[in-house]
Amino acid sequence: xxxxxxxxxxxxxxxxxxxxxxxxxxxxxxxxxxxxxxxxxxxxxxxxxxxxxxxxxxxxxxxxxxxxxxxxxxxxxxxxxxxxxxxxxxxxxxxxxxxxxxxxxxxxxxxxxxxxxxxxxxxxxxxxxxxxxxxxxxxxxxxxxxxxxxxxxxxxxxxxxxxxxxxxxxxxxxxxxxxxxxxxxxxxxxxxxxxxxxxxxxxxxxxxxxxxxxxxxxxxxxxxxxxxxxxxxxxxxxxxxxxxxxxxxxxxxxxxxxxxxxxxxxxxxxxxxxxxxxxxxxxxxxxxxxxxxxxxxxxxxxxxxxxxxxxxxxxxxxxxxxxxxxxxxxxxxxxxxxxxxxxxxxxxxxxxxxxxxxxxxxxxxxxxxxxxxxxxxxxxxxxxxxxxxxxxxxxxxxxxxxxxxxxxxxxxxxxxx
Length: 417
Known about the structure:
There is one protein chain. This protein is mainly α. Helix content is about 65%, strand content about 0%. The chain has 19 helices and no strands. It has helices spanning about 5-10, 20-25, 40-45, 50-60, 75, 105-110, 120-135, 145-175, 195-215, 220-225, 230-240, 245-255, 255-265, 270-295, 300-305, 310-315, 320-340, 345-365, 370-415.
């Protein structure tokens, strides 16, 4: 087929008139041909061949074609920042428990926060509270000190394991957020010392270890404990959708306030006094969790704002101390309600409630929310100060009631003999 037929086959003569065809071919934007009146090829477009077009382009460069830049692309295109900021240099621990572990174990110990056990203590205290409050309510006889101590030790081991599992779940969810927060930049998954898959496997092993501890309790505890896993998984997500993730954390960390009752054989569904006491103690611990975690959140308040992480500290930055005061009042009032439902004596109300009121009031007055160091000090030490006085008051009340019952039993045993 000739070039003339090729062109006329594409542009049909029947469709266009001579003038239309001339205009069509004299302005081909894709060819960049600049028409000239002296050009015979352009005045007779039907005789324009492919060879003519080729020769025209070979003799004349396209006027509208821009020059190809010789500058490298990287110099022309703007550079975009990396998704992860540069991380500071990691220094392996030289003191404490982690310094004595094999180097390959250290990232896993850090993932479980074995070097920062304060969170485990906060998880343990509600378990201890409920154990001490439930002991006098055990049917037939008050639980013995040996039973209380043994149950508390099981709870302590479970708190260490499950707090580690919760931290691992949190770090898996936050693996893309932690590099942007100064305090969390060097966490094992954030600095890529552990892959997400390795973290997931480690979390599964911790959950299995926690299950082994749970099965040492009466089997009813399994049904009471299982729902708490939902809150463990949801807490990291709450930071993304609400300014009040501390309440979700409170639902999680306070779960032990329920567990002491079935652990000692107290049936919550059959004992209305125990159910009321457990409910008040649980909500009291939720208020306590929100209180201390609000102080904790002030350490990251600037980084959280940049990273888009929500917290109650960001929402109520200007009125934090008023919110802390309200939470403390709620905590103490609910704690007193738990004691009243359980039939606690003066030692509980003076020691636990009065002690909590004094220590919380002093902490709220003294803490400098603009100082990261001061917030951390009160977070760590407030755990033992407030948790300690509440436990001491409960333990004193339990022992007084226990020995009072023993005294009453001796005359009855002598009479029966």
